[in-house]
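Weekly structure sync, notes
Attendees: PL (lead), two postdocs, one rotation student
Agenda item 3: pending single-chain targets
PL asked that the sequence for the first pending target be pasted directly into the notes so everyone works from the same version. It is reproduced below exactly as submitted, 194 residues in total.
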Amino acid sequence: MRIVVIGASGVIGSAVADALEKDHEVVRASRRGQVRVDMNDTASVDALFQSVPDVDAVVCCAANAPLTPLDAGVDAEDVVRPKLFGQVHLVREAARHVRDGGSVTLTSGAFDRPMAGGAFGAMVNAGLEAFVAGAALEMPRGLRLNTVSPGWVAETLETLGMDASEGTPVSEVAGAYVVAVEGDDRGKTFRPSR
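Predicted structure, written out during the meeting:
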C-alpha cells in the first residue's frame, strides 16, 4: 500500500511511519518536511492529495488540542479547529482521493482523568470519536475510517520530566495505527493503553 502519514516528524507520527514502512510505501508529510501539509490550513490539506496521488491510506498523527484553561482568554474555536475540524476536512478530502477499499485513520486522545486545562481537549477527542463512528457508515467505495486514542505516550512524559511509566510506549501506540490501517475495522476507536 501507499500510505501518507501526516505529522511524521512528531513522536507518534515518526514511530507510525517507521512501523508501516516495514511492509508498505510510506510518504511522510508534516508542516516542515519535504511533503508539506498543515492541518490548520484546508488549502494545504487539499494540495496534499494533488502532490501525492494514488494513495491507499492516510494516517493523521499531526493535530493536537493543547491544554488550555477555560479562562485563558482565547477563542475556543482556535483551540479546537486544527484537531477537530482539520481532521474532519481531511476525511472529506480523503473520501474523494484515497483508492477504493482504502483506509483513513485519525488521532483522538484520552483524558481519562479530568485535569485542569483539559476541557477543550476532552471535547475534541469525544467529538472526533463520535464523528468517526458516524462518518464510517457514510464512507464511499469501501473506504474504512477509524481513530486511535493514544493517551499519554511514555516518551512524551519522559521529555516533560514526568513519570514515563504512566504512559504507553510509542512502539505500542504505533502498533495500534498499523492494525487500524491493515485491518478491516470501521468506525472503531483503538485505545493502546496500559
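Discussion points:
- The domain at 2-190 is CATH 3.40.50.720 (Rossmann fold).
- The helical segments are 11-21, 42-51, 76-97, 119-135, 154-159, 170-182.
Action: rotation student to compare against the earlier draft before next sync.
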